[in-house]
Amino acid sequence: EDQVTQSPEALRLQEGESSSLNCSYTVSGLRGLFWYRQDPGKGPEFLFTLYSAGEEKEKERLKATLTKKESFLHITAPKPEDSATYLCAVQEYGGATNKLIFGTGTLLAVQP
Amino acid sequence: DAGVTQSPTHLIKTRGQQVTLRCSPKSGHDTVSWYQQALGQGPQFIFQYYEEEERQRGNFPDRFSGHQFPNYSSELNVNALLLGDSALYLCASSSNTEAFFGQGTRLTVV
Asked: Which residue of A36, A41, A102 is in closest CB contact with B106?
């Protein structure tokens, strides 16, 4: 069964304290791995799509990396405005749709 | 570009009632998916529409139904509402390489 597990469930950082969020996945064939940011009561905001092991993408203080079993979202020198829930999702090859299978997210709080 | 738009933003319904949620996809996208997100959980796939047909359904009962119109906009209908249907309902429009979400409709069933 396809599965996505995110860790930690919650993370509290001081402003400027870099860290990483983990997303491990089990899927028969990975078509794409997606990262989203979600603010309370809002829809997920698209960050990155990664397609193959070794791929990396960056956006401001965020960098996403991908291996054959997991993805990391590295946050460098975070600011309080980076506080949000970060969701990881996978898309599988061979299905009739391009549906996304989500993890439960990591709640990040960055304190000034 | 307006992105993905959903309406209404909030809704309160009584158990047993029916509800219709609406979604307009991002310009250039022809595929619309619906997700249910309970508090503290990741979004769960309900179904996807392409070319006005349902392509795949997640593990949701037949009380959940949908429709896609020729202009690619979509509706999600839920009949015989239960308290457990209270959630944030998200619409996503997609191409082959990207999937963008709307702001969601917060449904509360009382």
From this structure: A41
